[in-house]
Design goal:
Largest sheet: 8 strands, mixed
Oligomer: single chain
Strand content: 25-35%
């Protein structure tokens, strides 16, 4: 079967006296039957190409499934009289959420489980289900949750009465995917955020549960470069309302104990100033980057927001990202030396909690009681599975209370993890995280998969995955390059990889690949690059700049037609992205973005094997970006390497929703990669 060749319809973009030819612009029209026909033809070609790899894909899939425990139970988290947890069964696609009423953790085994939400029952026969937020009222008699069945960012609120198991008549549509729903303390009202036509979260509403009256609009974010999010402080007293852009933050407060009071502004927005607010005792805690690139922590009285003092001295080597107040102690979460850290405040000093491994990831478990006597912390590394520690808040004593199970044999001592440092062209040291099975390098350079992201200040952290084990058993090395544009090394790391510094992300990744070759870990014939979304932009740009360093490149739901998207403010989320990439209406921004945009820089030359994915309903990276890019690559590349485009016709940005469907997709991708880089 021959690869589909998309028709070419002449179209030109003309701005800043620059003409861009775009023969595949017609693919933007989702209602055009020819568009769907082309995507379906590409899917048929994908199936044909993958037929010889079915056995390999099935073998990988079965190896992954073999690592799935018969039952996976998350550590129960105490909230009032109940302990809440989720569990997954090996024969089920989705999680089951449950609780037990017990006086202490030690008595949980003696208490009957109450299922509060079974996503398997909820999914029914539908191919796609996403449930993101779940919020309990203070009395814990009602559960509000967000549900979506088409892969978009438009969700619906449903409210379940946990006493009867029935759904209430309340049904609120057009709610954003996350950061968009909270209860008042009395349980009479729900506050929620809806999206506009571009799926930008922008309106805050108050809904009276059970009422048929119209909901009250409390605030509308009118600046198109800002999005609106809400969350509740750990104490439960306030709901924080965030007007947020890449560069700037403005926070308002709703008194959750007095839900009919007006919304209160903390600080007016000032470009470049980001801040967050929480509540502790009689004070507000404010984490801000004003005159502190890596953020400083202030406090002030709830009644006097202008009189502020530093909680602890600012340290530019610590990147403070969040506060976690409990009734009697204050914990702070952030990063130092490229790793996540947790500090506890003692005598105006932040004391770092210590851990045994040199490479790890920490997170504070959500949903814990403000007045609990323990703090639950999740710990993992590339070789250590998810482990939950209970830290006694008064004494600081740590105790392991849960370790995620790994089905089958697993000995962490048989695997190596390293933090390496590659030198970028400008001398910057770029951190790399590596894992492989002992012996993988005994016969010289090994097959290696290099991943990266490098945008939005997002962190790529070391994590454990049992599904990685079948690949490690084959001698594959996994490496993540923490390139600039992420936040791993602090706020400056992000600033040095965005807007007019964006090319640093690409060159960091390229220099990381060269480092891995020079150090003898792999060769260009044995190395694959993989990245999703903005990480798809990363590896897509690298395919133009240094494709010869890789045998295969896997851009998943890649953001590759940068200029066309950023010039069209009718596209979902475009306006929110201008502070990240630049606004190409500005000629200087336009020229810089054009210099790296993967679609605009396709050349007549050889490219690696490429495995590209997209989702027809993706609101974040439109399907037509990867589709156009694939079509242009087909006509211009001069090699005989394989190029496939797989479109998920019933899902969005995150692919299949069921975990086994998701594993099948992953296994297919790995089969394609290993077919190219693995010499068996």
């Amino acid at each position: 079967m021959k690869a589909p060749i998309a028709k070419r319809v002449p179209f030109t973009h003309n701005i800043h006296n620059d003409i861009r030819e775009d023969d595949y612009y017609w693919m933007k029209d989702k209602t055009n039957p020819e568009v769907v026909s082309y995507l379906e033809a590409e899917n048929e070609y994908f199936k044909e190409v993958m037929k010889p790899l079915e056995q390999k894909a099935n073998e990988i899939f079965e190896g992954m499934v073999a690592r799935v425990p018969e039952a996976e139970v998350k550590v129960p988290v105490q909230n009032g009289p109940y302990f809440y947890y989720s569990r997954e069964q090996k024969d089920k696609q989705y999680a089951i959420y449950a609780r037990k009423k017990a006086a202490s953790r030690e008595l949980l085994d003696q208490v009957k489980e109450e299922v509060i939400l079974d996503l398997n029952e909820l999914a029914g026969d539908d191919d796609y289900l996403s449930v993101t937020l779940q919020r309990l009222n203070k009395e814990q008699t009602k559960l509000a949750y967000l549900e979506n069945r088409d892969g978009s960012d438009r969700y619906t609120i449903y409210i379940k009465d946990l006493r009867t198991g029935e759904l209430l008549s309340d049904k609120i549509e057009n709610v954003y995917i996350y950061g968009s729903m909270e209860w008042s303390q009395c349980g009479k009202y729900i506050f929620y955020v809806t999206v506009d036509d571009m799926q930008r979260p922008y309106r805050l509403w108050r809904h009276e549960v059970g009422s048929t009256e119209s909901d009250e609009l409390l605030y509308e974010e009118q600046e198109v470069t800002f999005a609106l999010f809400i969350s509740k402080t750990k104490s439960g007293k306030y709901i924080t309302v965030h007007s947020s852009s890449t560069m700037t933050e403005e926070v308002r407060l709703i008194n959750a104990e007095q839900p009919l009071e007006p919304v209160k502004l903390v600080d007016e927005r000032r470009r470049g100033i980001k801040y967050d607010v929480d509540h502790w005792g009689d004070d507000l805690l404010i984490l801000t980057n004003e005159n502190a690139l890596n953020f400083k922590l202030l406090r002030c009285s709830e009644k006097n927001l202008s009189d502020r003092e530093e909680v602890t001295a600012y340290d530019e080597n610590r990147y403070l990202q969040a506060v976690y107040p409990t009734e009697n102690k204050l914990f702070v979460f952030g990063r130092e030396k490229g790793l996540t850290q947790i500090w506890v405040l003692e005598d105006k000093e932040l004391k770092q909690l210590g851990w045994d491994e040199p490479l790890y990831t920490l997170s504070i478990v959500g949903g814990q009681s403000y007045d609990a006597d323990e703090l639950l912390v999740e710990y993992e590394s590339l070789v250590t599975q998810d482990t939950t520690y209970s830290i006694h808040i008064e004494t600081g004593q740590k105790q392991v209370i849960h370790t995620a199970s790994v089905n089958g044999e697993y000995d962490a001592e048989q695997y190596c993890q390293h933090q390496l440092w590659a030198s970028a062209g400008d001398g910057t040291k770029v951190p790399l995280m590596m894992i492989y099975k002992k012996g993988a390098l005994d016969n010289g350079p090994a097959p290696l998969i290099l991943t990266g992201y490098g945008s939005y200040g997002a962190d790529s952290n070391p994590y454990f995955s049992a599904y990685r084990l079948p690949l490690l058993e084959k001698g594959v090395i996994f490496v993540t390059a923490q390139v600039r544009g992420g936040g791993e090394m602090g706020r400056h790391w992000y600033e040095e990889g965005k807007t007019h510094h964006k090319r640093n992300s690409f060159t960091d990744f390229i220099d990381a690949a060269r480092f891995l070759i020079d150090e003898g870990y792999t060769t260009a014939d044995k190395m694959a690059a993989r990245g999703g979304s903005a990480g798809g932009l990363l590896v897509g740009g690298v395919s133009n700049m240094a494709g010869d360093l890789f045998k295969v490149i896997v851009p998943e739901v890649p953001f590759v037609d940068v200029l066309t998207t950023m010039l069209d403010d009718t596209i979902p989320l475009t306006t929110l992205e201008w502070d990240e990439w630049g606004n190409p209406q500005n000629e200087q921004d336009y020229n810089y973005m054009k210099s790296y945009s993967p679609y605009d820089n396709v050349e007549e030359k050889e490219y690696p094997h490429m495995y590209i994915t997209t989702g027809l309903n993706d609101p974040r990276v439109a399907y037509w970006e990867p589709a156009k890019w694939t079509a242009r690559l087909r006509t211009m590349k001069t090699d005989n390497n394989t190029l496939v485009l797989k479109t998920n016709m019933g899902a969005g940005h995150f692919g299949a929703s069921g975990r086994f469907d998701h594993l099948k997709e992953a296994a297919e991708c790995y089969a394609f990669i290993l077919d190219k880089i693995l010499v068996e």
